[in-house]
C-alpha cells in the first residue's frame, strides 16, 4: 500500500510547480562540483558566493548586535569604530530583547519607521510604517501577498514573460492561474500595453478573473529599466482593469546606465494624482539581497502596501503571525540599508568607497558580458540596463533542436547542459523563465569577478561557436 | 466597486485561519503598552523578551562569522576566546561565500551533517544528512510538510486538543481538515489511544481521508512528557492507520522532572525494529528558539525525515528552493546547538554554567507557577513536566459565563481580558488551543524572571480570587 507521503499521494500543486533557477541545470552542476569539476555558479543572483565582499559597516553593526556584551568590553574600541557601536546600541534599543527575541510579526516597529522615512526621501511622498511589513527576503513577501490574493484556479495573475520563476512557482503552489504577457525583446524588453490588453481579454474569455499584475523593474531576467511613461501606462491599465499591482523592485540599486534611473511605481502613482493615486492598490517589494549589499543569506526584505484597507492589512498580519517573526538580524540589515552612514560619520568614506566600487564594477561587467555575447555566432543580447542578469537569445540551428529532441531535452536545456559540461558555467535555460515559441535564451548573472570575466566570456565563445559549427546547417538555417 | 485586495475579495482560507497566540489578547496588550501600562508578555514562548540572557559562546561565534575581517585583526584575541575564533573559521569554511550568500535550499551541507551526528549521538541510530532540511525556525518546516501533505478539504490531520495553534492555522490556510483528538487533563494530559481511534473513525465516517498525526512532545500548551509506552502506542496506531507522524519535539531540552526524560519518536520507532521501523513515515522537528538557547529571533530549525522516499524528498526540496534558502546565521546557530563546546574547550565551563543556570531556574519557575495556580480559587493546574507553559483550568462560575455572553466574548477570553486590564499579565485563552466544551483554561509561559515570579503569582491570585468572589454564585456553582 502506498504511504501518505509517497510521491503519488502528494499535493498536486506541489508536484506541478517548477523552479528552474535551482532545477535540472543546478542539480547537474552540483553533481559535477562534487566530482571535482570547477563550476561557475551564475544560475542565481548570489554575489557573495562569487566573491563579492560584504560591506564592512553593516557587518560591524550586526556583529555587535549579536554580541551585546562587547559593548561593555574596554577593548571594543580597538576593533570596532565608534559609529558602529552607536548604531548597534540604537538597533538593540529598538528591539525588545535583542536579536534572540521574536519581534512583532510585521517586524520591529522602529525599523519599519526607518523604512518609511527612506521611502519618503526616495519618492518625495510620506509613507506609513503601519503599511510596511518586514519579511525573510522579498520572496516570502511575494508569497504572502499572492496567498491573500489567489482564491482558486479561476483567479489569474498577470506575469511578464520572460519572468522570474518565483511567480510561476508560487502561483502553481497556490493553485492559481498564470496569465503571461510578453515583453518585447526587439524593443529592449519593453512592456507593450496592446499585448497586455490581449492577454487580459483572452484570460477573461476563458472565465478567468484577472486579479493582479506583476512587474519586475529593473527586469529579471531581462535587465530592462521601465520608463516613467511605461509605468504610467501600467498603472492606468491596472486601474481600468481593477488589478492590484505587485511591484518587484528588488534591483532598484542596480542601474548600469544614466538615461533611465530607477523610479518606483509608487512615486509615479503619487505623481499622477487624482482618484487613481488614492484608489489603485499597489504592493512594492525590496530586499537586502541585491544592490551593492548582496546579503542574500541574511534574508531581509520588506513590502509596502498602498491603498490597502486596514481590514486587509489585519488579515495579512494574522497570517504573518503564524510563523511568528521574520529573522531579527535580517531586519537590522534592512534598517542599515535604508539608513546607511551619513557624511561626517567615521565609517562614511569607507562605506561609499566600497559600495561605489561594487556598482562601478557591476556596470563594467554588464558591458563586458553583453559585448561578449554579441560577439558570438548566433547569439544576440540586449544590454543589461539594470538588475544582475544577462539574457542572450541563442539562435539554435534546426539540427541542434533535433539533437535535443533525440536526447529528450528541451532545446535550450540541451544547450545549457552542454555548456555546463564543457565550461563549468552553470546558467538557467530561457524555458525556465518563459519565452516565445521557437525562440531560445539563457540567463546568466553578471556576477563573476571582473578580472575573471574576459576568460569566462572567451570560454563561452569557444563553446558556443563550436556548438554552432557542429549543428549548423546553412541551408536549413537560412530559411528560418 | 470593490478592489482586488479588499477584505471581501481575499482568499477565504486566509480569512478563516486563527492564530490566538497573537490574537485579540495580544493586540489589546500592545495597545495598553502604547498607553504606558506595564505589560508582562507571557503570551508567547519568547525567553529573551522576558530578560533571559543569550548564551555567550554561540553569540561570539556568530559575531565573528558576521565580521570575518576580524579574524585577521591583531586585536581579535583581546575580545574573543580562541575557541570561538576556531569555530567561526570552521563554519565559514562550510559555507560558500559566508553569511551573505544563499546556501543550498536544504541548508549548508556541513551543518546538516552536524545535525545528523547529533541525532545519532542522541538516539543511538545513524541519521542521513540528505533527509535533514534546515529551516527558518521549526514553524516553517511544519508548514512545508503540511503543504506537501494536504490536497484538499477531504484530507484530515490529527491534532491534539489542546494544541499549539500553528497547526490549526496552517491546516486552515492550506484548506485541509483538522481532526481533533483530546488529551486527558485528569491523566496529566496523557494521550488516550481509545480516544484517538474514535476521532479517526468519526472523521472517516464523514468522508475524510486521515493522512497525518501531530504529536507535541513535550506538550504545548499542556507541558506533559510522553512515556515510551505512549509513544509506542502512537507509532503502532499510525502504522495501522497509514498515517505519517509529525513529531514536534522543539521542547526536548526543556524537561523539569526526572521520571520521564525526553525520548524522541524516532528512537522509539527504531527500538521497535521490524517492518514498522522501516516503513512508518515520520518527520521530526527541532529549533534553536527553545531549550536553554531561546534564540527565537534568529529563526533556526530543522526537520528530519524517516522512511520518506527520495522522490518525495526531491519535491520538498523543489518547494524549499522557491524561497531560495533559510537564513544562514540561523543555520550556524543550529550547528552550534547540536555541537556545543566540549570538555577541555576554553568556553566549556562558562557554557555549562550558563545553560545549567537557565534550566534550573526554569524548573523552579515551573514549580512556583503550578503551586501558585493551585492556591487560587477555582483554578486547578497540572505540573509543567516540560516545555515552557502552564495551562491551568479556570472553573468559571455561571455568572461569569453569563457576563461574558453579555459582553459578546468567549468566557475565557472575557476572563483573560479582565486579567490583562487588572494586572498587565498577557496570557492566551484556552479557546485558542482548543478545549472540551464548557471547560476553560489559559496558557501562560513560565518565562518571567524567577525573582519576579512570586509577585506575578500574587497579583494573579488577587485578581482571580476577587473575580471569583464577584461572579460566584454558590448555589449555581455547587450544582456544576
From TrEMBL, chains A, B:
Signal peptide: none
Pathway annotation from the record: Amino-acid degradation; L-alanine degradation via transaminase pathway; pyruvate from L-alanine: step 1/1; Photosynthesis; C4 acid pathway
Keywords, in A-Z order: Aminotransferase, Pyridoxal phosphate, Transferase
Presence of the UniProt keyword rRNA-binding in the record: no
Segments traversing the membrane: none
Gene Ontology terms: cellular component: peroxisome
Single GO term (MF): L-alanine:2-oxoglutarate aminotransferase activity
Domain called Aminotransferase class I/classII large: residue spans: 88-448
Gene Ontology BP, a term: photorespiration
Glycoprotein found in the keyword field: no
Catalytic reaction annotation: glycine + 2-oxoglutarate = glyoxylate + L-glutamate; glyoxylate + L-alanine = glycine + pyruvate
Subunit structure: Homodimer.
Family: Belongs to the class-I pyridoxal-phosphate-dependent aminotransferase family. Alanine aminotransferase subfamily.
Protein name: Aminotransferase class I/classII large domain-containing protein
Species, as recorded: Fraxinus pennsylvanica
Lineage, highest ranks first: Eukaryota, Viridiplantae, Streptophyta, Embryophyta, Tracheophyta
Amino acid at each position: 500500500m502506498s504511504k501518505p507521503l509517497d510521491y503519488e499521494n502528494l499535493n498536486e500543486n506541489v508536484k506541478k510547480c517548477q523552479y528552474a533557477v535551482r532545477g535540472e541545470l543546478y542539480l547537474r552542476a552540483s553533481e559535477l562540483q562534487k566530482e571535482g569539476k570547477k563550476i561557475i555558479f551564475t544560475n542565481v543572483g548570489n554575489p557573495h558566493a562569487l566573491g563579492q565582499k560584504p560591506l564592512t559597516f553593516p557587518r560591524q553593526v550586526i556583529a555587535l548586535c549579536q554580541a551585546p556584551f562587547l559593548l561593555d568590553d574596554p577593548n571594543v574600541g580597538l576593533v570596532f569604530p565608534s559609529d558602529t557601536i552607536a548604531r548597534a546600541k540604537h538597533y538593540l534599543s529598538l528591539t525588545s530583547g535583542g536579536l534572540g527575541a521574536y519581534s512583532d510579526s510585521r517586524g520591529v516597529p522602529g525599523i519599519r519607521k526607518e523604512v518609511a522615512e527612506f521611502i519618503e526621501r526616495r519618492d518625495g511622498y510620506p509613507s506609513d510604517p503601519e503599511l510596511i511589513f518586514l519579511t525573510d527576503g522579498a520572496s516570502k513577501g511575494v508569497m504572502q501577498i499572492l496567498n491573500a490574493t489567489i482564491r482558486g484556479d479561476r483567479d489569474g495573475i498577470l506575469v511578464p514573460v520572460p519572468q522570474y520563476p518565483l511567480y510561476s512557482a508560487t502561483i502553481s503552489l497556490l493553485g492559481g492561474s498564470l496569465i503571461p504577457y510578453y515583453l518585447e525583446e526587439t524593443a529592449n524588453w519593453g512592456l507593450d500595453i496592446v499585448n497586455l490588453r490581449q492577454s487580459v481579454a483572452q484570460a477573461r474569455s476563458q472565465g478567468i478573473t484577472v486579479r493582479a499584475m506583476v512587474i519586475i523593474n529593473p527586469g529579471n531576467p531581462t535587465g530592462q529599466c521601465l520608463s516613467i511613461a511605461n509605468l504610467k501606462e501600467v498603472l492606468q491599465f491596472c486601474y481600468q482593469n481593477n488589478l492590484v499591482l505587485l511591484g518587484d523592485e528588488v534591483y532598484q540599486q542596480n542601474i548600469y546606465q544614466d538615461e533611465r534611473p530607477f523610479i518606483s511605481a509608487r512615486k509615479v502613482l503619487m505623481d499622477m494624482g487624482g482618484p487613481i493615486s488614492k484608489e489603485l492598490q499597489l504592493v512594492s517589494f525590496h530586499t537586502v539581497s541585491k544592490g551593492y549589499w548582496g546579503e542574500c543569506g541574511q534574508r531581509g526584505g520588506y513590502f509596502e502596501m498602498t491603498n490597502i484597507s486596514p481590514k486587509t492589512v489585519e488579515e495579512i498580519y494574522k497570517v504573518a503571525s503564524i510563523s511568528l517573526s521574520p529573522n531579527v538580524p535580517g531586519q537590522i540589515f534592512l534598517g542599515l540599508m535604508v539608513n546607511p552612514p551619513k557624511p561626517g560619520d567615521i565609517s562614511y568614506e569607507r562605506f561609499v568607497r566600497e559600495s561605489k566600487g561594487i556598482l562601478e564594477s557591476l556596470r563594467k561587467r554588464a558591458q563586458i558580458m553583453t559585448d561578449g555575447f554579441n560577439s558570438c555566432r548566433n547569439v544576440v543580447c540586449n544590454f543589461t540596463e539594470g538588475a544582475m542578469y544577462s539574457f542572450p537569445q541563442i539562435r539554435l540551428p534546426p539540427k541542434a533542436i533535433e539533437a535535443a529532441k533525440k536526447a529528450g531535452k528541451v532545446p535550450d536545456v540541451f544547450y545549457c547542459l552542454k555548456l555546463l559540461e564543457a565550461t563549468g558555467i552553470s546558467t538557467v535555460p530561457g524555458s525556465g523563465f518563459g519565452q516565445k515559441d521557437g525562440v531560445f535564451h539563457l540567463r546568466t548573472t553578471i556576477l563573476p569577478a571582473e578580472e575573471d570575466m574576459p576568460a569566462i566570456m572567451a570560454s563561452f565563445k569557444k563553446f558556443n561557436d563550436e556548438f554552432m559549427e557542429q549543428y549548423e546547417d546553412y541551408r536549413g538555417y537560412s530559411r528560418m
